[in-house]
Amino acid sequence: SIFEMSEGTQTRDFIHIDQAVLKIFKGILLLNNMKNGKIVRHIASGKKSSLYKFVKKICKKNKSKITILRSNKSGKAQIDSIYSDKKSII
After folding, report:
1. Among 7, 11, 4, which Cα is nearest to 79's?
2. What is the rounded distance in angstroms from the CA atom of residue 48 to the CA atom of residue 72?
3. CA distance linking residue 17 with residue 61, whole number of Å
């Protein structure tokens, strides 16, 4: 099988679902202890990774035989980088 993707140079902040759930619970506890009940925090790892590295990691973890085909033939504008500032992470 072939997996077609962009060049994969864009960076993102990936977080495992188990960690995301724990951070949500932590946020709920934090809200319960606040007087005004307002908080702005990110649920993230604080670590950036390229999309290509992420895909390779998932393929390796699942022992996938998929061939990754990287190209930017779509011509669509891509967001290069999205990740959280560690100061805003819960």
Report:
1. 11
2. 21
3. 16
The model's pLDDT over 27-40, given as tens digits with 9 standing for 90+, comes to 888 888 777 767 77
**69 compared with 81, residue with greater pLDDT:** 69
For 54, the token pair is: 């992420």
3-state secondary structure of 54: helix
Provide the whole-model pTM: 0.72
Burial of residue 25, with CB atoms counted within 10 A of its CB: 0-12 exposed, 13-18 middle, 19 or more buried: exposed
- What tens digit of pLDDT does each residue of 44-70 get? 888 899 999 999 999 999 999 999 999
Q: Give, in order, the Cα–Cα distances in Å from 37 to each of 5, 23, 24, 32, 42.
A: 42, 17, 15, 7, 16
Half-sphere exposure (Cβ direction) of 11: Cα atoms closer than 13 Å:
9
3-class state of residue 41 by DSSP:
coil
